[in-house]
Description:
Elements: H1 3-15, E1 41-45, H2 51-68, E2 76-83, H3 88-104, H4 110-113, H5 123-130, H6 133-141, E3 145-149, H7 154-167, E4 169-175, E5 178-183, E6 188-195, H8 209-227, E7 230-236, H9 244-248, H10 264-268, E8 271-276, E9 304-312, E10 319-326, E11 331-334, H11 347-350
Parallel strand pairs: 1-7, 1-8, 2-3, 2-6, 6-7
Antiparallel strand pairs: 4-5, 8-9, 9-10, 10-11
Helix pairs in contact: 7-8
Amino acid sequence: MGEFEILKNEVERGISGLNSGISMGFERLNKYISIRKSIYTIIMAGTGLGKSALLHNAYILNPYDYLLSRKENKIKYKVILFSMERSKLHTVAKWLSRKIFLDHGMLIPVAKLLGWWDQKLTYNEHDYFLAYEDYIDEMFDSKSIEIIENGQNPTGIYKYVKDYALSHGRVEEIDEFNKIYIPNNENEIVTIGVDHASLIRKEKGLMNKKEAIDKLSEYLQFFRDFYGYSPVLVMQNNRSMADSMLLKSGDAEPTLEHAADSSTPIQDSDCVLSLYDPKRYRQADPSGYDLEKFIDTKTGAYYYRSLKILKSTYSESDVRIALGFQGITGNFKEMPKIKEMDQFNYNTLFDGTFFLPS
């Protein structure tokens, strides 16, 4: 098949709607990036800013519910999540807490759901919880989502993904130097989530954390380039974010140079998303939002994050999008643009109604 024929096939797939990708659940962000084949994405943020929650929202839960509501959609979506920081039980409990809130406006924190508080579930709350048995069973029984918990080394991740690829496709030789992967379902998009890079384990031949992360990134590139899969790697910002000189300059917003432990994934990736909380560093918001108004004075809870596309090989870079963040459910929602904030009711952040579907 000639180069033009290959391009022609992709154009025809685009006309048929097979290259449009899957919604991430964020209207403005979807204009710049979406979930599709062969894109390697980095989500970068400091500790406790919601980087895992953004992975779960944008690349797992929103896309899953989007396709679930569109049964006629030809696209099949598969997520393999290597959750090295949180257990599968805790992750699913957080997802269910979020889902119950979005569907019914009922807030059941994970700590209450799992009985960590003295205040236990009411009969009504327990009934709502039980109503989601089919939803969770379908999610995992259908193998749409797999969660692999506990620490992993790069080779363990490589073998797991390779086994999945070979059980859902085949490798054919083009000539003595080249091979090609042919999936059983060409309309399947596979996301490989790794949360997070700093927790990757060393293995034989990899002497330190940087070498382990670099090997992991090499494998993630291979998943993208050979299998057509779309890796999403969560990374920490490094400690220089709190450097006194940086803070004095009045500009502590992360850059591509702020990735912790290794810069190799940043170089290898197609897209880098950064979550930033200017208030943490006593900085003004770069987009102009009044951060003090995002604080619930009754509880001290804080509801603002700034998302920036630091790198994109497919669209515009240096694009900022303000997000409301409901930490107790791990839910994000795009804020109105700064010019529309004069009429915004901040109490809707605090009582949660802002985060409910329109």
